[in-house]
Structure formats: C-alpha cells, structure tokens
Amino acid sequence: MNSFNIQLALAALVLITFWCFLHRKSRVLNNISGPPSPSWFKGNYEQVFNPNAWGFHEFLAKTYGSMTRLHGPYGTNTLYTFDPKAMQTVLVKDQNVFEEEDGFIKGNLLIFGEGLFSTLGHRHRKQRKILNPAFSAAHMREMIPVFFEVAHKLESALKNKLQHGPATQEVEILSWMGRTALELIGQAGLGYSFDPLTDEDSAHPYSQISKELFPTLIRLQFWQFNILPYVSWIGTAGFRRRIIKMLPWKDLHHMQDMIAYMYGVAEEIYKIKLHAFEAGDEAVALQIGRGNDLISVLMKENMKASEEDRLGDVEVIAQVPDIHLIYLLHYLCLIVVHPQQMNTLIFAAMDTTSSAMARTLHLLSQHPEAQERLRQEIIEAKHLKDGHDFSYEDLSTLPYLDAVCRETLRLYTPVTTVTRSTRRDTMIPLLKPIIGLDGTEIHEVAAPNDTRVIVSIYNSNRNPDLWGEDANEWKPERWLSPLPKALVEAHIPGVYSHLMTFLGGGRSCIGFKFSQLEMKVVISILVEKFRFSRSSKDSEILWQMNTITAPIIGKANHPQLPMNISLVN
Ligand code: HEM
C-alpha cells in the first residue's frame, strides 16, 4: 500500500469516527424554541450562512427573540443569541469555556505556530499584552501622518480623474476603498507600499483578490465549518493539495490559486522586513512607516518586556500578521505548506474597514442632507486649522463625523456573526427570559459540552428593545443625544459604544482604533473635497452578508459599488 492510499484510509477512518462522535451529542437543548430544520444534513446552516441571509436573521430575532435553538448539521443543536447577558457570559465572563472550535485552533497551530488565532488562555493573553501597545491610541496618534499621506494620494487620484473628464463621473468606489485600506495597512502595519494610488491601472492585483476571496469563501462555508476542522490535519500538505486537485470543485481551485498568489506576495514582504531588522536601526528607520509600523513597534515592545512575558522571535514574526480573517485560515490549513501570516493582517484590516468606508459613502450618497451637514462640519473645522490636516484629537472632536461612523458601524456591521463552542457543560444566563417549548420560563440555558453558539452581532446592534422602535433606521443624530436608558442598562459587552461590531472580551478586535482612525481620515478628506450621489445602477446594488459584508450588482460574482462623484468646488 503506498503512502497516498494509507492517508486515504486514515481519512475514511477519521470521518467514520466523526459521525459516531456527533451522534452521541446531547438533546438537552430541545426545549428551546427555534425554526424547523429544512435538512438533516445541513440543518438551518444554509439559511444562516448565505450571502442573502439578512431576512432569515431578522426572522429569527422577530419570531424567537434573543436566544434561539437552531438545527445544526446531522441533527445536532446550535444556540443563536444576542441576549446581552448571554453575550457577556460567552465572550467575557466565561470566555475560557466558550472558545473557538477545536478544529479551528488545531488547524491554525499547524499552519501559523502560536499566533493570536491559534492560542488560548494564558498564551493568548500574553500575546495580547505584548501586542496592545502597537494598537493603542498613543501609537495611533503617532501614525496619523501616514494615514493622511495615503488619504491625500487617493484624493489626488480622484481629482485627477475628474479634472480630465466629465465633471460628474461614475466611479467604482469599493475598489478605491479596498486599495486605500490595503495601502494603509501596508504602510502603517507592515512598513510596505503596495499601491501608488495614481489611477485605475495602478491597482495591485492583491486588491482584486481580496474582492473575490470572501464571496468564494461563503460559497464554501458549510464545508469549512462542518467538515474542514475534522480533516484539515490529515496527511501532509502535499497530500491535501493532491486531494483538492482531484475534486471537480471550481471554487476550491480558485481559492487555492488566490492563496498561492497571496503567499508569494507575503513572502516578499516578509523577506524585506527581516532584511531591514538584520541590518539594524538605521535600515529600519529608512523603511516605509519609518519604523513606526505595527511590526516594528511590536518588536520594540517585545525587547522591553520582562523575560517571562517576552515572545520568542518566531512568535513575534508570526504574531503581528496573525490578524483575524479567521475563515481564510481554515483554507490555509488545507492548502499552504508552512506558516505565512502576512496575508491575515492585510485581509483583516483591509476588507472589514474598506467595507465600512464604502458603506458610509453609499449611505451619504443616499442621504444628501446628512452628507452636506457632515461637509459643513469638516469645512468649518478645517478653516480653524488654516487648512492643515486634522490631529488625532481634532478628529475625535468632530461630533457629526463621529455620529456618522458609529451609526454606520451599528446598523451595517461588516462582520455579522461570530461562533464559539463550549468546552464543558455550562450555564448561559439570560437578561430577557424565554419561554421553553414545555411552557416554562427559562432564565438560563444549560449548554452541554461541545455546543456551538452563534453570537449575532447584527441583531444585537439592531435590537429594538434596547435601541428603540427606530433601531432599523440609519439616524446619525441618535448619537448626538443621550442613548436610550434600556441600552445603557443592558451593559452590552462590546468594546465600542454599546455595539458588538468589534466584539468584546479577550478576543475582541485589537485593531478597532486603527480602523476608527482610518475611517475618519478617509471619510473627512473625501467628503470635504467630493460630492457623492447615487449612480444609475444604485437600485440594483445588493449588499451581501458574506463573511464580511460586500456590495454586488445583479448576478455579478465580484463585489462592486458604483457611485457618481463630482468636485465640491
Ligand atoms: C470596521 C473594521 C473592523 C471590524 C468590523 C472588525 C471586527 C472584528 C471582529 C468581530 C473580531 C472578532 C472575531 C472573532 O472573535 O471571531 C475581530 C478580531 C480581530 N481583529 Fe478586527 N475588525 C475590523 C478591523 C480590524 C483592523 C483594521 C485590524 C488590524 C489592523 C483588526 C485586527 C483584529 C485582530 C488581531 C483580531 C483578533 C483578536 C484576538 O483574537 O485576540 N481588525 N475583528
């Protein structure tokens, strides 16, 4: 028997064990009401995780409230919640009980070594401690010139386009936001420039890939969640690649090609960085970002740390780029030969924030009065500064800009759900009790070991019990007066503004200040200089849920957001 056949036999054995394991799962959650299952094989998963799942999530919230039972694959149970107290337990209080799923952590360990996404408990906390200063407000303050430098490049490119063509032009704004976010995380995060941001043709191929990655990923999501964690460690990477090639599966092949490309780019950046560090301080200072990028700061912090807290060299290099894009990591388990984390940082920072910036501009194009109000605020503040760029403090004292960003991130969160899995039998207390199928009032849910819990960021941010009857409307003004008492008293466990957008607890988004700054810098420059209005295709634009929300037109496969723009003067 050759080694290929042995690995094939092992794969079959693992799958059989996996079926048996699932069947012994408990039925304790059967008393919690929830939607019927359309399929034993997939349960409700295809309804919850699909690009157009908005309606199903709204239906769950309206029909079953903030704690629901879903049918998982193969007759298993899954909890779906946005109850504030339940989220507090899952994400903050008992976060060691509600961890990322086993397969996820093991797969990441295989590929990335001990980075943020592949560590738990003490080790994860230790890495966060070292990483925190690189993402602190103090460091963001130092980075602000880099943010403005990149935003001004975008401004020049768009101005140039408008000055050499019709006064109002249709522009595909999503790709410009993606390119800007890529350049920003390149310069501020990695000390590397991807894109001169001069015209449409100068785009780095990486930004195109980022637009295709998530839509492809969501088409594969069921397999990713339910099969991949159990097979990702089987055989060698070479074996797994051979298996993928044999499968008649277009999306998986496309994913493999995209990752191979990203891998090459990441390797190049990685080598440049290492080379500069080996050459010493002067070489680092000559780099883009002038030694202030996240990797450089992390290295400096690590040198200062006590011996106990210090990360090993490999851990440092693995760490900074090991930024979210959780779902891609599963695929990397299958496809990539050895660790390459640069891509994770780039994607985490890029797709989330570019989606948020594009959504903000889209909303402003649909609400011209809000756009004008924002423009006036920026122009007046700029006037007081004699036209100079804003400082970090200036940006945090523009109330309407702040309100527009918060409201957009509330109503249109780029990441709509996160999933955790219980590591032992446990209780989940509820702020709002539910009625069980047997008619009893349930104040806390007994969740057996290995229960999947989906936390709905989307429904938490739109909960009418907390935000009021207008919770589903985009109203920046709500942030200019005191927030509803019910919301404040609910103690939403999010790190940002009673919102779950950046999550809460020890695994919350470490880059949320980075992303806030980026949004404010880019939106303030664009709205001051350009007027945004709906394009003729506006009614066809459909925002898809995906892993990170993205707009598409009609049946097109790749995200795009056409918008009309003209110069303000
Ligand atoms: C609007 C933009 C962004 C949104 C909505 C967002 C959202 C999130 C969410 C929901 C998580 C938790 C995922 C989970 O636990 O399953 C997360 C984690 C993370 N994000 Fe972001 N993110 C954004 C931008 C960024 C940026 C710009 C960076 C880096 C520069 C970043 C770095 C990270 C990291 C490192 C984690 C993992 C933290 C850990 O496991 O300890 N994010 N993000």
What would you note in describing this structure?
Heme binds at residue 509. Its main location: membrane. It comes from Lentinula edodes (Shiitake mushroom). Pathway: Secondary metabolite biosynthesis; terpenoid biosynthesis. The chain has helices at 3-23, 45-48, 54-64, 84-93, 102-112, 121-131, 137-163, 173-190, 205-219, 221-226, 228-231, 237-246, 250-279, 281-285, 294-304, 313-319, 326-335, 342-366, 368-384, 392-396, 399-411, 457-461, 464-467, 485-490, 512-529, and strands at residues 67-71, 77-81, 98-99, 168-172, 417-422, 426-435, 441-447, 452-456, 530-534, 541-544, 550-553, 562-567. With 569 residues, it is α+β, with helices and mostly antiparallel strands. The chain has a domain at 132-411 and 512-537: Cytochrome P450 (Cytochrome p450), CATH 1.10.630. The strands form four sheets. It has a five-stranded mixed β-sheet with strand order 1-2-8-5-3, sandwiched between helices. A hairpin with a 5-residue loop joins strand 6 and strand 7. The chain is globular. Mean pLDDT is 83; it is low at 313-342. The structure holds protoporphyrin IX containing FE (HEM). Protoporphyrin IX containing FE binds next to helix 18 and helix 25.
